[in-house]
Amino acid sequence: MAYVITQACCNDASCVATCPVNCIHPTPDEAQFRTTEMLYIEPDTCIDCGACVDACPVAAIFPSDQLSEADARYAEINANYYEKYPLQEGWNPLRPTEAKRFDLGTLRVAIVGAGPAASYAAEQLLVHSDVEVEVFEKLPTPWGLIRAGVAPDHPGTKVITDAFEWTAAKDGFQFHLNVEVGKHLSHDELMANHHAVIYAVGASSDRRLDIPGEDLPGSHAATEFVAWYNGHPDYADRDFDLSGERAVIVGNGNVAIDVARVLTMDVAELAETDIADHALEALRHSNIREVVLLGRRGPAQAAYSTPEFLALGELENVDVVIDPAELELDELSARLLESGEYEPSTEFKVQLAREFAERTSTPGHKRIVFRYLASPTALLGTDRVEAVTVARNELVAGADGAPSARPTADSETLEASLVLRSIGYRGRPLAGVPFDERRGTIPNDAGRVLESAAGAPVDGVYVTGWIKRGPSGVIGTNKACAKETVRGLLEDFQSGSLSRPVGSRKDLTKLVAQRQPARIDYRGWQAIDAAERARGAASGRPRVKITDVDEMLGVAKARRARAWLPSPRTR
Questions:
Q1: Which of 69, 70, 185, 195 has the fewest CB atoms found within 10 Å of its own CB?
Q2: In sequence order, what are the residues at sequence separation of 6 or more whose Cβ sits closer than 8 angstroms to the Cβ of residue 501?
Q3: What is the edge-to-edge ordering of all strands in the sheet holding 246-250?
Q4: Tens digits of per-residue pLDDT, 409-456?
Q5: How many angstroms separate the CA atoms of 40 and 500, rounded?
Q6: Is 312 helix (H, G, I), strand (E, B) or coil?
Q7: How far apart are CA 366 and CA 11, in angstroms?
Q8: Model confidence pLDDT, tens digit, residues 47-65
């Protein structure tokens, strides 16, 4: 019997290092790791030891004979990967990197951001002795997109924060929540108080469509909608018109699928999650019956991942609708598919799309409709969005030989009262830090920030996560990314290039208190966390999120004064 990795896989590769026979791939050292949807267990090599199960932070690994009906196909998905990438002879078991000690005094590092990329960087730093990590986050709460981006019906994905809590509880770690770098503290002030600064601020802005009517009421970025239903305080008062029967989402990545699912799934199921109360109330009165996802290329180039696409088939009273005619592959895509040049995940997604297309729709069910080779050319309406003009595309060979979308003269109009664009994230520039406007990232070499794309390194400044590599990968991808950045930082410190005098933790705490008296520390976050969990327990939910900043500050202040507060690990 072999173990099988399933939908919740976070790609942080904790399981890779513990496997005694090295049967979990791709590893962070393999090229496929940067683009893989998930990790896979080689069924013939697995020795059924269960070490990977204990190491998995999101409980995504199960024995093949204990898979649920919904996860049964993951045995096939895991095996398919090794048809294309068979294990090489001579693979040796991987060993965890040994912690090193420093003889150069205490290394002080500031991390800007408190999401997965920042948390993994802190974890990598604090396995070493004589390190102090200060984490700065402009929101009163940590964990970034895990709290404000992961869909509420994916609680398993959020379990990764338990590992982050262990790091945050260490003596060498300190939170500065509700403190914004660029407002309360400058980049130069961070540098004066630390040997190094790591920027892990993600990619917080969205890409625009640049078509007529994009700014009409009823047209929004999907990122705003996601932040709204997840209780992000900056978006809690947003208003989304759910009075119409059809919504159109431009894009077909995982964020688009999350939004489509939230708009169509049973509200009673959502009521058992940590979705924001204001969003839950709005969805109770929603009239939306159909969500259309527009993908500019074909099913072989769809941006969604296999696990998210597969899971749509399990939604109750929701039909996944695909026109079989739109699944006819262009000549180039068909050739790549038949030749085995596509990844196994791509082959499986094409197969799954064909299976969805063969299903019969049920009268009365809501619908999630996938449209391929379709791009919006205009949003129509007088005072608000009323319809979308959609052009039919064709695929041609691009400059790199891959299929590229080209519009044709064919078009149609879809009535819709809500349009959400989900065509990618983009980083924002930071005061005092170089920025690549073209890529929307901070220029860097393996995490060392550069003066420009081809410039010299900036001493003591580093980057990790989406602001480093662009919006790619899943939560766990940030672990290998952070490990690379921290490796370079530690090399620089040990070489003596970061050994200048810096302010102490006491100096920094005093400065932050002057600039932002409303700073929240780890104990304050624990108070907010405990209050949300208590409110959730009263209504059978994992938590009820507090979305008002003033209320968060009040909770943190009231509970922080107590002599003892139970850790999230003991609740």
A1: 69
A2: none
A3: 219-221, 418-421, 246-250, 290-294, 366-371, 318-322
A4: 999 999 999 999 999 888 999 999 999 999 999 999 999 999 988 889
A5: 45
A6: helix
A7: 32
A8: 888 899 999 999 999 999 9
